[in-house]
Amino acid sequence: MRSAILITMLVVGSSAAPAEEVAYRVTGLFSPVRVDDLKEAMRKVEGATLKSVDFATASAVFDIADRRKMTIEKLDQELRKQTFGAKGPLLTPPDKLKEIEIDVVGLDCKGCAYGAYLGVYQIDGVERATVSFKDGKVRALIDTSKTNREALVEGLRKKRVTIAGEAEKK
To answer: What is the 3 state secondary structure string of the chain?
Structure first.
């Protein structure tokens, strides 16, 4: 009887590997209100739990049950179903990054803000973007060797976002 208990304990002990904590950048985290959306989205992702979120850096810490099954690519795929995504750490040196702020008008809901976010975030060289429909601001942290303010403005125009000052010209 004693050996049976020992065997059971070994089997149970070996199958219960501790979760691994990992930090990733999160795409789609363009506004503080999206933190709650991310928490809700993570309830639908099996094999990973959200431990903490840092909106200022658009990053989050996740507990991953099995890194072989839940790779960053798999987590990204799962989060994309919920209008988010996962990326590796920021690799651009801080001295190559510059914050650009653009005043916009007409963003009156989370959906409009998300469209503006996509207009700038998808540009090569944009490392982070935020949109505040309340303040009428789009902010982007860019790699100055890859993009510039005018490219961001053009990306917003393609999404039919009105740049402040341009509304009066029409």
So the answer is: CHHHHHHHHHHHHHHCCCCEEEEEEEECCCCCCHHHHHHHHHCCCCCEEEEEEEHHHCEEEEEECCCCCCCHHHHHHHHHCCCCEEECCCCCCHHHEEEEEEEEECCCCHHHHHHHHHHHHCCCCEEEEEEECCCCEEEEEEECCCCCHHHHHHHHHHCCCEECCCCCCC
The single residue listed with the structure tokens 């691994």 is 20
Per residue of the chain (170 residues), give pLDDT as tens: 444 333 333 344 444 567 899 999 999 999 999 999 999 999 999 999 999 999 988 999 999 999 899 999 999 999 999 999 999 988 888 888 999 999 999 888 888 999 999 999 999 999 999 999 888 999 999 999 999 999 999 999 999 999 998 855 55
Tokens, residue 125: 């060289």
- Whether the model pTM is above 0.85: no
Tokens in use for 136? 């009428």
